[in-house]
Amino acid sequence: MKTLWDHCHAATLTGGKYSIIEDAAILTDGARIEWIGPRAAAPEIGEGERVDLEGAWVTPGLIDCHTHLVFGGDRSGEFEERLEGVSYAEIAARGGGITSTVRATREASEDALFEAAKRRAFGLMREGVTALEVKSGYGLDLANERKMLAVARRLGHALPLTVRATCLAAHALPPEYANRADDYIAYICDEMLPALVEEGLVDAVDAFCEHIAFSTQQVERVFRCARDLGVSVKLHAEQLSSLHGSSLAARYQALSADHLEFMTEADAIAMAQSGTVAVLLPGAFYMLRETQLPPIDALRRQRVPIALASDLNPGTSPALSLRMMLNMGCTLFRLTPEEALAGVTIHAARALGLKATHGSLEAGKCADFVAWRIERPAELSYWLGGALPNRVVRGGAEIDFERIAR
């Protein structure tokens, strides 16, 4: 059925800009946008429905393109200890840190992981998120990586939400492979990835390229495996040091390279040439009290698309608000509100391989959008927390959050 969403202002985000249409209307046909333009030029809808948006500002549905949404337990106790002076090394030495999350995730049932992840996803959706990525990486063996990715698939079926599942088995070294990183990479490539891809659980493959994780040579082996399996890649790169992982990602036409605090101009040039998106994660930067800023000017000079994401995870970014990341992207990284909004819409869609269908308000794309009771788009980056009144439309239908919550 056709619906005319009338009486609004639209920030379409085409071309990575606000691309504003004042006094606009949007015509949807089922789950797709059929037309968008000035209200005075709106086509006739015949027997279709007309919805008065009462002067709201409409943006594309927000996209969280980097999350670790599925995990067992939390690490709030460790957060408290660190504030009291206990070092991360001390915590890790007694089985804390990522090891504790791996243990809790392995011990949790699929149903328990699903219910916890569903609650987190619901909070993001209330803020206007209509698509997100879910990474694995806290299972670190075939059975538990499969369990995490199965939860991601369930979320996409159970909620009015587009979910992309990314296998991050090369996230950390599991306890049973202590001091045997090459053997673990072989296990990922020879057993885990082929099985998980065959089961239809993987949309992309990620890895953590860092001194405390995996080398560029080890990551490249994972990338070659993913390429042979026909799966796109992305990479955690340059968060703590410069290993030129982002250039490696660019050589494999990665969808994105994420974090990037220590990337160089040469890395930015490589990413620009490959079309790889730079995903910035201000939540982790804030929580870890980092001081090394991502090279925003280099990314701008080279015209690398810049996305923002929550990096929602239990250790370094327990961020339940993508809209808060808009503000952090502006205040910490000096993005403009326009760049920040593009970072959670059109560029985030590209980082998930969804640019053809998501991320902007254009005819032929998915009818995912948010009608905000605000005076100008910059308010989305301006307000610190709190619920901004909105109506969230996904696939051409307004989401009934009260029904979902029951």
TrEMBL record:
InterPro entries: Amidohydro-rel, HutI, Metal-dep_hydrolase_composite, Metal_Hydrolase. One of its GO terms (molecular function) is zinc ion binding. This is Imidazolonepropionase. Residues 57-372 form the Amidohydrolase-related domain. Its main location: cytoplasm. Its cofactor is Zn(2+); Fe(3+). It comes from Caballeronia novacaledonica. N-formimidoyl-L-glutamate binds at Y138, N313, G315.
